[in-house]
């Protein structure tokens, strides 16, 4: 396992692209000042990975935040996602152009299929492969794909997804899916790492926070990284953005990693990839 060293450390994707293993998620950050300041604060503090999506309706603000920061675009790992209503081959190509236009950039570092929309995600993936071959995206991947979705996609895909972004936290480890992705060279990434705030109610988390003299958020985010999982906690508050990144002066023991693994109960706080209607 690669050492977790600092805020700008990376995991290498199967095509050789270096993906920063820690980033800022901007889900629910309002377009305009809120997301602009969040992105600027994160980048100026040392973050180099920003994760947005068409459906978040804040790509314009994200692009502005990057331009107004002290960081060059080429040094930012910028991620967006194609929404379900835009899935399909031609419509994905159009949606990608629209995202680039809103972000004010001419390429993405990573573009994801946001959900496994039945009957469409294979055509969507072909569009991503085309954009990747045209060098308009440095890496392509999926989000919310369970093992059977991935296996189905791989029956026709020319390119294996580089990333699978999933709900991931101590109540939803999905170790079998983690192992499958590792076997296929697909980098695992966490969304909702803090269990939509429910992580703060767990006594075991309070105990670990006291043991390591860290916050509960820092404990669980460090666990993600030690599991080899890229993580993108979302916040629009500067102090939280800075605190979330304070993960590199301690390490969880192997016993404590296993303790958190053992909390797994297959519980989702977000939608089920096998049963969503949007």
Automatic annotation (TrEMBL):
SUPFAM superfamilies: NAD(P)-linked oxidoreductase (SSF51430). The keyword Lipid biosynthesis does not apply. Belongs to the aldo/keto reductase family. Residues 30-264 form the NADP-dependent oxidoreductase domain. The keyword Electron transport does not apply. Keywords: NADP, Oxidoreductase. It comes from Flagellimonas marina. This is Aldo/keto reductase. Pfam families: Aldo_ket_red. PANTHER family: 2,5-DIKETO-D-GLUCONIC ACID REDUCTASE (PTHR43827), NADP-DEPENDENT OXIDOREDUCTASE DOMAIN-CONTAINING PROTEIN (PTHR43827:SF3).
């Amino acid at each position: 396992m690669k050492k977790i060293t600092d805020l700008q450390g990376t995991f290498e994707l199967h095509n050789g692209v270096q993906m920063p293993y820690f980033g800022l998620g901007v889900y629910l950050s309002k377009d305009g000042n809120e997301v602009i300041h969040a992105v600027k604060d994160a980048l100026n503090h040392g973050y180099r990975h920003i994760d947005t999506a068409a459906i978040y309706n804040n790509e314009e603000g994200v692009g502005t935040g990057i331009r107004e920061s002290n960081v060059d675009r080429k040094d930012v790992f910028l991620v967006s996602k194609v929404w379900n209503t835009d899935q399909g081959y031609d419509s994905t190509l159009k949606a990608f152009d629209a995202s680039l236009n809103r972000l004010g950039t001419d390429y993405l570092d990573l573009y994801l299929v946001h959900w496994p929309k039945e009957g469409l995600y294979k055509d969507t993936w072909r569009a991503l492969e085309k954009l990747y071959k045209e060098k308009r995206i440095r890496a392509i991947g999926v989000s919310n794909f369970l093992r059977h979705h991935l296996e189905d996609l791989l029956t026709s895909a020319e390119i294996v997804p580089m990333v699978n972004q999933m709900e991931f936290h101590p109540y939803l480890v999905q170790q079998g899916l983690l192992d499958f992705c590792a076997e296929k060279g697909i980098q695992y990434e966490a969304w909702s790492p803090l269990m939509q705030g429910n992580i703060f109610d767990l006594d075991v988390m309070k105990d670990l926070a006291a043991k390591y003299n860290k916050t509960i958020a820092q404990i669980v985010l460090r666990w993600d990284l030690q599991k080899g999982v890229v993580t993108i906690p979302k916040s629009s508050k500067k102090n939280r953005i800075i605190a979330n990144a304070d993960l590199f002066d301690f390490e969880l023991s192997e016993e404590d990693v296993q303790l958190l693994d053992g909390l797994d109960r297959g519980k989702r706080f977000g939608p089920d990839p096998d049963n969503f209607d949007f």
